[in-house]
């Protein structure tokens, strides 16, 4: 069962859990064709949300700067290129 929460409002964890449910339903094959298409579309949106959130997190981590002792000391802008 999927939720009605808009994908763009979901946290990474929530989107991932729902994506797992969608994949499980599709793999079982006990869903009508029209429902399967809707599930596939929802799954694609959930996958994109997860990818976007991971990329955002990776960019945040990449921007962390370390001081001489190896401790986080702030962030730096990411290169646009």
User: What gross morphology would you assign?
Assistant: rod-shaped
Helical fraction equals 55-70%
Number of strands: 2
Strand count, sense and barrel status of the largest sheet are: 2 strands, antiparallel
List the SSEs and their pairings.
Blueprint: H1 12-28, H2 33-62, E1 64-66, E2 72-75
Antiparallel strand pairs: 1-2
Helix pairs in contact: 1-2
How does this model look, in words?
By secondary structure, this protein is mostly helical. The chain is 58% helix and 9% strand. The protein has 2 helices and 2 strands; from the N terminus they run ααββ. The chain has a two-stranded antiparallel ribbon. β1 and β2 (72-75) form a beta hairpin. α1 runs antiparallel to α2.
Q: Main attributes?
A:
rod-shaped, single chain, 81 residues, mainly alpha, 58% helix, two-stranded antiparallel ribbon
Structure summarized in a few sentences:
By secondary structure, this protein is mainly alpha-helical. The chain has helices at 12-28, 33-62; strands at residues 64-66, 72-75.
């Amino acid at each position: 069962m999927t939720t009605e929460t808009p994908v763009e409002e979901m946290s990474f964890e929530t989107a991932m859990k729902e994506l797992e449910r969608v994949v499980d339903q599709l793999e079982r094959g006990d869903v009508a064709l029209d429902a399967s298409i809707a599930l596939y579309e929802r799954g694609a949106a959930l996958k994109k949300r997860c990818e976007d959130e991971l990329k955002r997190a990776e960019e945040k981590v990449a921007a962390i700067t370390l001081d001489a002792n190896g401790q986080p000391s702030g962030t730096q802008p990411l290169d646009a290129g």
